[in-house]
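Marked as duplicate of an earlier ticket. Keeping the data here for the record.
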Amino acid sequence: MSATADHAEERTNPAARLGFQPEQVVQEIGFDDDVDQELREAIEELIGSDLVDEDYDDVADAVVMWFRDDDGDLTDALVDATQLIDEGAPVWLMTPKTGRDNYVEPSDINEAATTAGLSHTKSVNAGKDWTGSRLVTPKAAKSSKR
């Protein structure tokens, strides 16, 4: 059954678990040498192309934002990220796990997301050192039927 295969892929491929789809344009913000390369490669493999960088000047289907506590203002970064995607597209906020350097408090993430007009829909283990928070525009969550 294909449903079983899909569930197996979701368990083994971190990009599938995050909901990425083939042929999506995924913009990456905040890349540095500490990001989870395995996750990046899994996303690229699943979407069938490279992640686009911060200089990409078209609308993306999703954003992966690597953010550390010393990266500046999280609210401003999230507002900027929402300008790069269509309504309803997710911003995957990747932050260091508890106990890692530059850990970001969950309350700070929730406050910044709310201020930026985003809703926090779920958190996942996004790699050895990173937690992923899926953020979307609230209107899209309510009216995503087209």
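See parent ticket for discussion. Strands lie at 26-29, 62-66, 91-96, 119-125, 130-136.
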